[in-house]
Amino acid sequence: MLDQQEVAAGTIQDYRLPSNVTPERYLLRLTPDLTAFTFDGEETVAIKVHEQTSEIQLNALELEIARASVERGSKALIGAVEFVPARERAKLTFPQPLEPGEWTLKIAFRGTLNDKLHGFYRSQYKDDAGKTHIVAATQFEATDARRAFPCWDEPAMKARYKVTLVID
Description:
Layout: H1 4-8, E1 21-33, E2 38-49, E3 53-59, E4 63-72, E5 75-78, E6 80-84, E7 89-98, E8 101-112, E9 119-126, E10 132-139, E11 160-165
């Protein structure tokens, strides 16, 4: 929790994402593997770049990002990914600055169906015959969505979502 001295000293940016890029709409596809307790994900995010930047910061925790790119019209740029675990962030750096306006961000990622009851996690139940079944569930309150997919996991950065689950 932030104390008043930290906020007064201007270090709140250490805890909040920059507002130069914001999400508008997520198209999220998750493919859980209930045997290996992992999941693969792909997301396409309609973003708005408010000021020229070569970097996008978003929240990600306990995820692997395989690739990230941005597109606008015929322009496509591949991003380099750097994780900042202490800040629960991923920093995507692009070879050219992104001009202000609407862009499409595409990210492929992988994660673990953890047993911590956070993010995208695994659980189990017993049916009437006593057989145990594994299920995948979500918990996104507070700062837990960042464990399921790279996102702007802050109340001030709301967006619309369309989620597709690829399951048996």
